[in-house]
Amino acid sequence: EEEEDKDKDKDDEKGRRPPGGGGGRRGLPPPGWPERGAISFRDVTIAYRPDLPPALQGIHLDIAAGEKVGVIGRTGSGKTTLLLSLLRLVECEQSSPHAGGGGIAIDGVDVRDVPVHLLRSRIGVVMQDPVVFAGSLAENLRLGSASPLAIGDDELLAIAQRVGVIGATLGRAE
Question: Of the candidates 20, 15, 63, 13, which has an alpha carbon nearest to the alpha carbon of residue 38?
Fold first, then answer.
């Protein structure tokens, strides 16, 4: 175990972490994080494989708390990669921001220091093409809930009515 800790420390010094790693080496973010939602990308470079050119290179971007942002561009310009990097579905190549290199931070917290499950549970994303998984509407609406059974049928019905799904579904069935 001591050898493993030394290897982790060496990786941290070099700014590397294993892809999809749990993060949190510097501790969990504060309770209620993210509180404001300010996002910053600093010198972010991402390649899907070492033998491919970077999909993103040297990205610098600041999104203020509460700001709504749309990302547009041609096919293959890196729009999806930008989002995937925020969710840590792909990892940045640059060294840690703590060492003066690049990285992504939300409310000043490096996303590589946040356990992946916590990070992804705190970020909401609206994709261009909606996805509905096999299963019932209720199962799709409960998807991603920390405790799927905690959302009752009455609450799901209220949600479906608010967004107009119930009227559209019943209208086709009649």
Answer: 63
